[in-house]
Design goal:
The chain is α/β, with parallel strands linked by helices. Helix content is 32%, strand content 34%. Catalyzes a salvage reaction resulting in the formation of AMP, that is energically less costly than de novo synthesis.
Length: 182
């Protein structure tokens, strides 16, 4: 699959490691050089969107959810590529209307995510999109938010997975599509 391979090569080539950010001991994966490269960004969006299609190319999701903040950058164009709506999952206190909230652990702390109560309709199938799958906490919290609305998370599509943090022990049986495993 050329777009997937192109996306993987671009990630490996253009992602910059930033040591001790945002806290000492954390190696931050800076994807801004990937986003700045039109061809790399296009290949990445196509590859991420593949998780929202079946083997015949038919779209099998009703919505794409992106987690704040870098998930927004990726999920919105994935939703456009699939022809479905985009729903943001925000940090606590950022949504103006009634929202569900879930607090979870990060690799370097704790956070709370929120989703408008009417962001996902009951029965809707939802693809979760983010940049990095680290501890799995963000994905698990987002799945809980989708389910609180009555929707079903059908899978997660991420740029890279930090396998040494064992995120799949937290994400459980949720299918994970990743472009690069570290």
């Amino acid at each position: 699959m050329p777009d997937r391979r192109t996306a993987q090569e671009a990630l490996a080539r253009l992602t910059v490691d930033v040591a001790d950010w945002p806290t000492p001991g954390v190696v931050f994966k800076d994807i801004t050089p990937v986003l700045a490269d039109h061809h790399a960004f296009s290949a990445i969006i196509t590859a991420l969107a593949a998780a929202g299609r079946d083997d015949h190319g038919t779209v099998v999701v009703d919505k794409v959810v992106g987690m704040e903040a870098r998930g927004f950058i990726l999920a919105a164009p994935v939703a456009l590529a699939l022809g479905v709506g985009f729903v943001p999952v925000r940090k606590a206190g950022k949504l103006p209307r009634a929202a569900h909230a879930v607090t979870y652990s990060l690799e370097y702390g704790e956070a709370t995510l929120e989703l408008h109560e009417d962001g996902i309709a009951p029965g809707e199938r939802v693809l979760l999109v983010d940049d990095v799958l680290a501890t799995g906490g963000t994905v698990d919290a987002t799945r809980q938010l989708v389910e609180a609305c009555g929707g079903t998370a059908t899978g997660v599509s991420v740029l890279m997975e930090l396998s040494f943090l064992d995120p799949r022990s937290v994400t459980g049986d949720l299918p994970v599509a990743t472009l690069l495993t570290i």
